[in-house]
Design a protein that fits this description.
The chain has about 240 residues and is mostly helical. It is about 85% helix and about 0% strand. A two-stranded antiparallel ribbon has the order 1-2.
C-alpha cells in the first residue's frame, strides 16, 4: 500500500509537471503569436504611414506642378496680350504714317501746281506787256513818219522845218519811253510775283514735310516666358509642356 501510494503520488506529480510544462509551452506559443501579431500590426501601421506620407508628398508635387503650369500660362497670356497690343499700335502708327506721307505728297503737288499757275499768269502778263510795247513803238514810228510827211507837205523851209521835225521826234521818244517804262514795270511786278509764288510754295512744301512724323520702326516684342519644368518625384525634372 505504501509503495503504490508513493508511485501514485509520483505519477500525479509527474502528470502535474507535464501539464504545467504544456501550459508553459502554450503560454509561450501564445506570447509568440501575440508578439508576431503585434509586429505585423506595427509593420502595417508603418506601411500605412509610409503610404500616407507618399500620397501626401505626391499630392504636394501635383499641386506644385499645377501652380507652375498656371503661373506659366498666366505669364504667357500676359506677354501675348502685350505683344498683341504692341503690334496693333505699330499697325496704327504705320497706317497713320502712310496717310501722312500721302497727304504730304498731295499738298506738295498742289503747292507746286499753284506756283506753276502763278508763273503762267505772270508770263502771260509779261508777254502782253511786250506786245503793247511793240505796238506802241510801231504806232509812234507811224506817227513820226506821218508828222514829218505833213511838215514837208506844208511847204515850209528853213529853220522852222528843223524845229518842227525835232519836236515830232521828241514826242515820239517820249511816247516810246513811256511804253518801255510800262513794260519794265510790268516785268518787275511779274518777277516779284513769281518770286513770291516760289517762296510761298517752298514754305508750304517745307511745312508739309515738317508735318510728316517719324517713320515707325519695327517694335520691340517682349520674349515669351521659357517653358517651365514639372517636378517629377521619381525622375529628374522634365519640361512641363514637352
Amino acid at each position: 500500500m505504501g509503495i503504490m501510494s508513493a508511485q501514485q503520488q509520483a505519477a500525479q506529480a509527474q502528470a502535474q509537471m507535464n501539464m504545467q510544462a504544456q501550459q508553459a509551452v502554450r503560454q509561450q506559443e501564445m506570447q509568440r503569436q501575440q508578439m508576431l501579431q503585434s509586429q505585423q500590426q506595427q509593420r502595417q501601421r508603418i506601411i500605412l504611414q509610409q503610404r500616407q506620407a507618399q500620397d501626401q508628398y505626391n499630392l504636394s508635387i501635383q499641386q506644385t506642378n499645377i501652380q507652375i503650369a498656371n503661373q506659366y500660362l498666366q505669364q504667357r497670356q500676359q506677354v501675348e496680350a502685350e505683344r498683341n497690343n504692341i503690334q496693333k499700335r505699330y499697325e496704327a502708327d504705320r497706317i497713320g504714317y502712310q496717310r501722312s506721307k500721302e497727304e504730304k505728297q498731295t499738298q506738295i503737288k498742289y503747292n507746286n501746281e499753284a506756283a506753276n499757275r502763278s508763273y503762267e499768269q505772270q508770263q502771260a502778263k509779261m508777254s502782253e506787256a511786250r506786245k503793247k510795247a511793240a505796238f506802241a513803238q510801231q504806232s509812234a514810228l507811224a506817227k513820226s513818219i506821218g508828222a514829218k510827211g505833213a511838215i514837208l507837205a506844208a511847204g515850209r523851209s528853213g529853220q522852222s522845218i528843223g524845229l518842227l521835225v525835232n519836236d515830232v521826234e521828241r514826242q515820239i521818244e517820249f511816247e516810246t519811253a513811256q511804253s518801255d517804262a510800262a513794260m519794265e514795270s510790268t516785268y518787275e511786278q511779274s518777277l516779284i510775283s513769281m518770286d513770291q509764288a516760289y517762296l510761298q510754295a517752298l514754305g508750304a512744301n517745307n511745312q508739309a514735310i515738317g508735318n510728316l512724323g517719324m517713320r515707325p520702326t519695327d517694335p520691340y516684342m517682349p520674349a515669351l516666358p521659357e517653358v517651365p519644368n514639372f517636378v517629377d518625384p521619381y525622375q529628374d525634372t522634365q519640361p512641363a509642356f514637352a
